[in-house]
Design goal:
Length: 424
Amino acid sequence: MATTTKKTEATHHSMFDAVLARLDKAAELFGLDPSVAEILRHPKKEVKVSLPIVMDNGSIQVFEGYRTVHSTHLGPSKGGIRYAMDVNDDEVRALAAWMTVKCAIANLPYGGGKGGIKCDPRKMSVGELERLTRAYTRAMADIFGVNKDIPAPDMGTGKREMAWLVDEFNKVTGEDQPGVTTGKPITLGGSRGREAATGRGVMVASLAAMKKIGINHKTATAAVQGFGNVGSHASRLLASKNIKIVAISDHTAAFHNEKGIDIDAALRYVAQNGNMLKGFTGGDEISNNDLITCNVDLLVPAAIQGVITAANAKDIKAKLIVEGANGPTEAEADAILNDKGIVVVPDVLANGGGVTVSYFEWVQNKYGHYWTEDEVNAKHDISMNQAFENVWFNSQQYKTSMRIGAYITALKKLDKAIRYKGNY
Ligand code: NAD
């Protein structure tokens, strides 16, 4: 089969290019058939919709909504929905491709997808957000489906939005299908353990990595960027393993405390302060960039993409980076971190706990039988540790970073699936 694969240049102007750069590198090391690589370089389906919404003041505002299905080679596409002002087609495409890789690494029977709406949820009322979520669901009703494309929460969305989504989808289809989305409230078929799952996966991956590289977690220090779903649960769970969290942050402020930040106090503070850390008194205020370069064993970026760059990578003092966020490290920074001997547990492995428990939620919905939180957590920990070992093995075998080892782990599976299916 003729191919038109074109390698990406060293500089990347888009998030999707950054995904392709890593995919190309892994494909080359693994010796992937260029025809298979070419298939993975193109998303299967991309949809953009305009959503006119009546705002509370009576005016009409038109929002842009996106959904990209990158791959369905291993199963129905799976991936969250993001509400943020910088949502765009390139970002959604990159996030969808990452989901393909992430689901393959986590050994789930899923392909990859992602969606988003360009909006600022912090500036919208609950009523406006509900109308927007329902309009988006109606517009995507042909795309979504229990065995087709299964959304979940991401930045700016949570169980409330998933409840509206499942309710609207069921109204459109006239059937009760809780498994059309995951991350639902428990009363509507959500799974116990889902809300904390991504943070839990970050904790499990951090402990596994510390064991491999000889860091004693009982005397280790950590800095966590982001105090939302991923960052707050990761901080809490890392602290529960006696790791001293010396720095935390969100979009409003960052704090440092050499003696360790009282995470329970920070959780109580944000709960009473509109989900914002600004004004917290449990540490000295620093900048978000100071947090990235502060003196710790473990750095957990768990907020937004592109925070570890060619400019600040050289100043990073952590021995281990565990990527809670998607895409926190720019492709140009990878080589600098490698040269410094910093071990990076990549996003596609480290934050796979969320989609793993999403899969458990979907299984429970199909099964109509629900597990206890302990059962969910135990199954999650086994799955995350297995995924970690597979990636570690491949990175050792191919003498490469864990990031490229993770892509190779995914490519091995995707290559087989694409060949078996004969996608021509
Ligand atoms: P969230 O909306 O719950 O929280 C985001 C956090 O990041 C907030 O504390 C916010 O204040 C902070 N933040 C935003 N901009 C910032 C900035 N410029 N500097 C510092 N902090 C900033 O989102 P989330 O669900 O925790 O997602 C965080 C990251 O994890 C995203 O990259 C997301 O794609 C990824 N992720 C989330 C899940 C999940 O299950 N929620 C799963 C996998 C990956």
